[in-house]
Amino acid sequence: MNKNLQELFAVAQKEERLGIGLMSGTSLDGLDIALCSFSGSGLQTQFRLINFITTPYKEAFKKEVQQVFAQKQVSLEKVTLLNAYIGSFHAELILQALAEWRINPAEVDFIASHGQTIYHAPKRLHQHQNYGNATLQIGDADHIAVKTGILTISDFRQKHIAAGGEGAPLALYGDVLLGSKRGENRILLNIGGIANLTYLPADADYTNVMCTDIGPGNTLIDAACRAYFDKPFDEDSAIAYSGTVNETLLDALLHHPFFNESLPKTTGPELFNLNFVADAQQATRTLNLTKADLVATLSTFTGRSIANFIRANFNEPDIKLFTSGGGARNPFVVEYIKKALPNVTIANTSELGIDPDAKEAILFALLGNEALCGEPIAIGNNPKVLMGKFSFPE
Ligand SMILES: Nc1ncnc2c1ncn2[C@@H]1O[C@H](COP(=O)(O)OP(=O)(O)OP(=O)(O)O)[C@@H](O)[C@H]1O
Ligand SMILES: CC(=O)N[C@H]1[C@@H]2OC[C@@H](O2)[C@@H](O)[C@@H]1O[C@H](C)C(=O)O
């Protein structure tokens, strides 16, 4: 048998596996690297987070990726170059993290890599008659496998689409394991570039789990900070607190048809970007808003669209909500949600023993473990598939 396949069998049959989950999200803030140990699979998985780091991206790298990010027309040459470059760059960051943690790469059984989403195109968004749902993550995993010497599993979203999904959110596969508790209706709310949530019902029946994107998380706030304040994000909401919310603009933003579309649904900065905001400003004659007022309005937009969604879909007093993602550290947004949902118990996922910043990287590590030794499970109305492709070091 091919040596790669022999090793794959051996890893899949191990009692305990060491795996790395990688997430590089729509915020383009850095690469999240979570080193975890696993035993078992599916809903019986035992896992432990051993180490976690977010390696921030340098501005020059962010600018390169932004050239091809969430835009209809880009340089195909740049996409091709970045596909190889990001794979190799992520491998370098993994090796650095392992060196810092004094872990020999040979001890790690697998890497599960999300890649960098550069375009997310569910049919609801692109609306081309003859095409279905599509999404593109780059940072080819062969480069990661060869450079680190570690078996790498990647490109998880394509199978979800091939089997009828939108390619996202994939969080539910891990959220069920990390967050479900019989007797409690729980919501795991991740506020990344885009906000999404997983509803975990108290009967612990995973066929009733629901996971969907809600709308913008940090993406518009970050974009405004980059464009008007030369800052990557609104640290501790300093700008939002200095501005005044414009209710007319806010109302127009909240009237986008996406908010009334059926669930589950996905979106991205392809829709929620500064052009969308400028169109709403034009329509409401609010183009002369100060930039601080704009950031305050966009921050409220994130908070209110999340609160509206929860109010419209759940019985508030019955819900325990756990936040994660970088947006859980945006005080303006979190305070807004707490005020708007006074009957919901709100905490962050550290109360569940999960580092809120590490959660998504852990989820991908879990998906990697499933790809190696799981069985397809039908969670909610999501495709019953195992996701991910295998790249071998040799
Ligand atoms: N102290 C803070 N104050 C305000 N905002 C913060 C703070 N810390 C982090 N953030 C926000 O969190 C963002 C990073 O979030 P995160 O890493 O969860 O995004 P992501 O993983 O790229 O997103 P996605 O889940 O959509 O792919 C930053 O860009 C910023 O908007
Ligand atoms: C296409 C894509 O990369 N989508 C991301 C993005 O970031 C948040 C939200 O939009 C979510 O749908 C998804 O990521 C998480 C990890 C998911 O699939 O669950």
TrEMBL record:
Pfam families: AnmK (PF03702). CDD domains: ASKHA_NBD_ANMK. One of its GO terms (molecular function) is kinase activity. The keyword Transport does not apply. InterPro entries: Anhydro_N_Ac-Mur_kinase (IPR005338), ATPase_NBD (IPR043129). ATP binds at residues 25-32. It catalyses: 1,6-anhydro-N-acetyl-beta-muramate + ATP + H2O = N-acetyl-D-muramate 6-phosphate + ADP + H(+). Gene3D superfamilies: 3.30.420.40. It comes from the Bacteria. Pathway: Cell wall biogenesis; peptidoglycan recycling; Amino-sugar metabolism; 1,6-anhydro-N-acetylmuramate degradation. Keywords: ATP-binding, Carbohydrate metabolism, Kinase, Nucleotide-binding, Transferase. Its EC number is 2.7.1.170. The keyword Repeat does not apply. Belongs to the anhydro-N-acetylmuramic acid kinase family. Catalyzes the specific phosphorylation of 1,6-anhydro-N-acetylmuramic acid (anhMurNAc) with the simultaneous cleavage of the 1,6-anhydro ring, generating MurNAc-6-P. Is required for the utilization of anhMurNAc either imported from the medium or derived from its own cell wall murein, and thus plays a role in cell wall recycling. This is Anhydro-N-acetylmuramic acid kinase. It comes from Mucilaginibacter pankratovii.
